[in-house]
Write a structure and sequence with these properties.
The complex is a heterodimer of chains A (197) and B (429). Helices cover 68% and strands 7% of the residues of chain A. With 197 residues, chain A is mostly helical. Chain A is elongated and about 65 Å long. The two termini of chain A are 39 Å apart. Chain B starts with a helix and ends in a 5-residue tail after the last helix. In chain B, 60% of the residues are buried. Chain B has 22 helices and no strands. The longest helix of chain B has 32 residues, at 265-296. In chain B, helix 5 (74-86) runs antiparallel to helix 11. The chains are: A mainly alpha (197), B mainly alpha (429).
Chain lengths: 197, 429
């Protein structure tokens, strides 16, 4: 078990730091979403001059918010599941079932990473967004039309982070199975299990 | 063979696989076994395209607005307003609890937010006045289900998006059913108050006192007016209305009540973002799942099975309500709507049930399911807030649940309850 704990420790640390960074960017993304839509409302209804970019910019932010923040929810137990059976079963059987479920989730995620990579680097990613540009010079005289792949990368990054969290949860589950649950810090946050309900 | 994805999905769900993974693993596995590997890529694309949606943005915005209002002390003002109106009645605080939930529902679309915000304030106050803790927790949980019924509503945004309905029509259709649930709960409280001699909360407020309480609650109470008024007048889309609600909540919190601080904002944004991201992933997976539902012809096969039970829509609606109620006992409303909407919706629309009416039946039924044991989400939140055991709250809530079930059947068999406002305003046929 000592070996497992030694492997888990750096993975936990990396995940904690990466997800913290993800949350920080996610916070900015949420704020930018609100600002974009308020700008849209202001220009359309007050100035009677509809802007082309706020809708797409807000969706861009929302997709990145999802990709960067959902892994935190997964790590903290915020993915909705009916866990009655796992709780009702004897401890060891319940732990084995948890491991099976985590491996099943990992399978889904690995397939998603494969597909996601070919989507981002493939044909669909070569198109550009309809209205998003970023400056490529300090004088703001050269602009790059944002490729769609930048938007599509949000889900790919999301599933890669989910894979990393999944590996951590598998290791934690193995340690719990071997009776070391008391040596693991509690990651769960019941307050995020609410969803939209 | 593809039709087997449904039982496989149910097995995955029952053994505890998170809904998000189940929605993708079951159809993915069957597509693979069916030799349709290329369609698995389609699943991935549909998850992405499902999330890349302007209407869905209303979910993080309404969540954010609710969080901001709650942190900004708006809940307190609503409770004071409710107390000025109903505190003098026998069982005053129980009535105040219900009325506060109805008012809070106009600001937030979440039953969980309602239970935690109002519960932490009203359950201790009710205990002080001699109510049992389990009763106080039970009435808080029972009334919190009004949150997602009266607009705005997170689950209605999800339903509208997944099923291609109008968010505005669903919002409008939820108003009367939500009020009906509240009035039904108040009637139960009245009967119990007379029987068990519940205390009054305060002396009857004078009209000037009521005026003062109304003035204090004016800004929060204007939120639903701005949201619904803006949508109805065609000024905002629901997503824009949600963003305006966020701006309004910030304005009230910073400049009117001055209860919000800048330091609190990152935490609020983070919580809203994390919770929304899970919902968005689920909706994306639901859109992928929906594709396989259509490919498998599951609705047609289920429809012929359902029609073999009876061809009378009234009996079928009764049976479907039973099914939804049982599902609601085990699954939260959002995921249940995501899973069952695409399967059941088309069947009942073909039977002649108005899609908006069916949406309200599903939404109200599954929302009530949030307060039903053994897996009622708000029961657990009420337990966490009050310190009372879930089992005790689950027993105390039964009379309230009985009324809510009655309301479900009223809504089911009297379509006018939900359909009148959307029809009058031109949002439904």
């Amino acid at each position: 078990m000592g070996g497992l704990l030694a492997v888990l420790s750096p993975i936990s640390l990396v995940n904690a730091q990466l997800l913290r960074l993800g949350r920080a960017i996610g916070i900015v993304a949420v704020a930018l979403m609100v600002v974009s839509i308020l700008v849209q409302v202001f220009f359309r209804y007050i100035l009677n001059n509809a802007l082309p970019w706020p809708d797409e910019a807000a969706r861009f932010c929302m997709l990145w918010m999802t990709g960067l923040m959902a892994p935190t929810a997964f790590r903290q137990g915020g993915f909705v599941a009916i866990d009655m059976l796992v709780i009702a079963l004897p401890r060891v059987v319940g732990q084995l079932l948890t491991l099976f479920l985590l491996f099943l989730s990992l399978m889904v995620l690995v397939v998603a990473v494969n597909i996601g990579w070919s989507e981002v680097t493939g044909f669909g990613g070569r198109f550009t967004t309809a209205s998003l540009y970023v400056p490529t010079s300090f004088g703001f005289d050269e602009w790059l039309r944002v490729p769609r792949s930048w938007m599509m990368a949000s889900l790919l990054v999301g599933v890669i982070l989910l894979v990393m969290v999944n590996v951590e949860l598998i290791l934690r589950s193995f340690i719990s199975l071997l009776g070391g649950a008391d040596q693991l810090p509690d990651l769960t946050d019941p307050s995020i299990a609410a969803g939209a309900d | 063979m593809l039709i087997w994805f449904l039982p496989v999905f149910l097995i995955f769900l029952m053994i505890g696989l998170p809904v998000f993974f189940g929605l993708l693993a079951a159809p993915g596995l069957l597509l693979y076994l069916n030799g349709q590997e290329r369609d698995i890529t389609l699943l991935y694309r549909n998850v992405y395209n499902g999330m890349d949606s302007f209407p869905l943005m209303a979910i993080p915005f309404f969540m954010l607005a609710g969080e901001l209002m709650n942190k900004g002390g708006i809940t307190m003002r609503l409770v004071e307003f409710a107390q000025a109106l109903m505190g003098h009645l026998r069982g005053g605080l129980a009535h105040v609890n219900i009325l506060s939930s109805m008012l809070f529902a106009g600001l937030s679309g979440s039953a969980v937010a309602d239970t935690s915000a109002l519960g932490s304030m009203l359950i201790p106050a009710m205990e002080k006045q001699g109510y049992t803790r389990k009763f106080a927790a039970a009435i808080t949980a029972a009334s919190s289900v009004i949150g997602p019924i009266i607009p705005p509503s997170g689950i209605m945004i999800i339903y509208a998006y997944v099923m291609g309905e109008s968010v505005a029509a669903l919002f409008l259709a939820g108003i009367v059913p939500g009020i009906l649930v509240g009035v039904g709960l108040m009637l139960v409280v009245k009967v119990m108050a007379d029987k068990y001699d519940f205390p009054v909360a305060s002396a009857k407020s004078t009209w000037p006192e009521r005026g003062q309480a109304s003035l204090k609650a004016f800004f929060p109470l204007m939120t639903p007016v701005i949201i619904l008024g803006g949508i109805l007048a065609g000024v905002f889309t629901p997503t824009e209305a949600a963003a305006v609600a966020v701006a309004y909540a910030l304005f009230i919190g910073f400049f009117v009540l001055r209860t919000l601080t800048l330091a609190e904002i990152p935490g609020i944004l983070s919580r809203a973002g994390i919770i929304s991201s899970v919902v968005l992933l689920l909706v994306g997976a639901a859109m992928a799942f929906k594709t396989v539902v259509s490919l498998s012809h599951a609705p047609e096969q289920l429809a012929s099975f359902i029609l073999s039970l009876s061809e009378n829509p009234l009996i079928l609606l009764f049976l479907i309500n039973l099914l939804l109620f049982v599902v609601g006992m085990f699954l939260d409303a959002g995921p249940a709507i995501i899973i069952l909407g695409p399967i059941l919706g088309p069947i009942f629309v073909d039977l002649g049930v108005d899609p908006i009416h069916f949406a309200i039946i599903m939404s109200v039924n599954l929302t009530v399911g949030l307060a039903t044991p053994p897996m009622g989400l708000v029961l657990f939140v009420a337990s966490a807030v009050s310190g009372e055991r879930v089992e005790a709250i689950a027993r105390a809530i039964l009379p309230f649940l009985a009324v809510e079930v009655l309301v479900i059947f009223l809504i089911t068999y009297v379509p006018a309850i939900s359909m009148t406002i959307p029809r009058l305003t031109g949002f439904a046929n």
